[in-house]
Predict the structure.
Amino acid sequence: MDRSRVVVAALLGAGLVLAVATPWYVGVSNSLETYLHHPAVFAMQAVPYLLAAALWLPVRTPRLQTIGLVVAWVMLVAAVLVYVPMLTGWFPMGGDMVALAFLFIEVVTVVLVVLVTLVAHVAVRLRIGRPGRDSRVG
């Protein structure tokens, strides 16, 4: 495994830990265990990061590896921007619909990961296949 794949895996792993730990901590600190300590909440928190790992770790071309690295960085920064305010109490969490907020965050993340992956792969394939342009692979 080359260095960029290790970095991508580490960034996605850090985002995964943050995404899974947030509902647990918010549930304990705000007495929302009934709503947030359901196994489905933890499973849905992991889906975008596992999907991104499945889509971006196997790529072989250097251009796609670079894009995968950028996607992993963006996912980690987005996770920090979304989850740290919840963990610190800057964004108060409460109510019986709090699990729905976590579901919404993860559905949007999954859709964005899939869209970015499709656009990146199509753009790289179109650029590689054009005669007269930079036709190097990668």
Q: What stands out?
A: The chain has a mean pLDDT of 86. The first helix runs from residue 3 to 29. The chain has one domain: 3-129.
